[in-house]
Design a protein that fits this description.
By secondary structure, the chain is an alpha/beta fold. The chain contains eleven helices and nine strands.
C-alpha cells in the first residue's frame, strides 16, 4: 500500500473510488508523515494495546497505530469510505465499525482505555464533552481545531474560557502538545490544528455542577448573579452564596475556576434545603 501521507496518493485513492472529502463531515486527511509520527509517539501504544479511534477517514492514523502494535477499534460515520478502508486496512488488527460516534454506546469500552484520533472538526466539542463525562478513557490524544484546543486548556478570565474549559478541568489534566499547520492536511483547512493530550482524573460526572455552570454562562455579558436568577435561583440566595465566597456580586462566570463553582454549588444547595 503506497504511503497515505502524500497528497498525490490521497488524490489518486479518492479519485479511484469516485470520492471527494466531505467538508460537511469535517474531513481533512493528514498528509504529513512527520506529524503523523508525532501523534503515534504521543499515543505511546504498548504492543497489543486496544485503542479507540473516531473518524479514521482513509485509515492513515489507523494504519500507523496498528503498525505500532495497537489493536484499533475505528468508528467511522461515512459509509462511502468502506471500500477505501477495506483496501488501506487490509491484514491489519483493526475492527472497523460504521456508526455515528455521537450516538455510540461508549459504556462498552473498558475503563482506562486509550483514545487516539484526528477528530472531524464538526464533532470535536460534543464528542469530547461526552467522552469526558463517560470517563471510559484514561488518556486521550486528539488532533483538534486550535480554537477547540484553546478552549479546553483556557484559564479563568481569558476569552476562550467557558463551559468546555470547566468540563475539562473537572475531569482531566489537559496538555497542548503541538500545532499542525493547514498544509499538513488534504484538502487544506482554513485553520490551524492542535494535538492535545487529556489524562482523565477519574472524577465522575456531576450533573448539578454543570447545570450550574451552563446557567452561569447562559449570557456571557451578564453577571453570574443575573444569569442564575434568570434560570430560577432566588436572587437573595445567590447573593448570599457569592458573599460567602468573597466574590463581587457583579462577577461574571468566566472569573470562577472549577473549585469555586463546586463551592458555589454546595452553598446554593445548602440554601435551598
Amino acid at each position: 500500500m503506497p504511503a497515505l501521507t502524500k497528497p498525490s496518493t490521497v488524490r489518486e485513492l479518492l479519485e479511484r473510488h469516485g470520492l471527494a472529502a466531505d467538508r460537511r463531515l469535517g474531513q481533512n486527511f493528514l498528509v504529513d508523515a512527520g506529524l503523523l509520527d508525532v501523534i503515534v509517539r504521543a499515543a505511546n501504544v504498548a504492543p497489543g494495546q486496544e485503542v479507540w479511534e473516531v473518524g479514521p477517514g482513509l485509515g492513515t492514523l489507523t494504519r500507523a497505530l496498528a503498525q505500532a502494535g495497537a489493536r484499533v477499534h475505528a468508528i467511522e460515520k461515512d459509509e462511502r469510505l468502506a471500500p477505501v478502508l477495506s483496501e488501506t486496512l487490509a491484514n491489519l488488527p483493526v475492527e472497523l465499525e460504521f456508526a455515528d460516534a455521537l450516538d455510540y454506546d461508549w459504556s462498552r469500552v473498558p475503563p482506562g482505555s486509550l483514545f487516539v484520533a484526528n477528530l472531524p472538526y464538526n464533532v470535536a466539542t460534543p464528542l469530547l464533552t461526552e467522552l469526558l463525562r463517560q470517563g471510559r478513557f484514561g488518556r486521550m490524544v486528539v488532533l483538534l481545531q486550535r480554537e477547540v484546543a484553546d478552549r479546553l486548556a483556557a484559564a479563568p478570565g481569558t476569552p476562550a474560557y467557558g463551559l468546555l474549559s470547566l468540563r475539562a478541568a473537572h475531569h482531566a489534566r489537559v496538555r497542548k502538545l503541538r500545532d499542525f499547520p493547514p498544509e499538513a492536511f488534504y484538502p487544506r483547512p482554513k485553520v490551524t490544528s492542535t494535538l492535545v493530550e487529556l489524562e482523565h482524573s477519574g472524577a465522575p460526572d456531576d450533573p448539578e455542577l454543570f447545570r450550574l455552570v451552563a446557567a452561569g454562562f447562559a449570557q456571557r455579558r451578564k453577571t453570574l448573579r443575573k444569569n442564575l436568577e434568570q434560570t430560577g435561583w432566588p436572587r437573595a440566595q445567590v447573593e448570599a452564596a457569592l458573599e460567602q465566597l468573597g466574590l463581587d456580586p457583579r462577577v461574571r462566570a468566566e472569573r470562577l475556576d472549577v473549585q469555586t463553582f463546586r463551592r458555589l454549588r454546595d452553598l446554593l444547595a445548602q440554601g435551598a434545603s
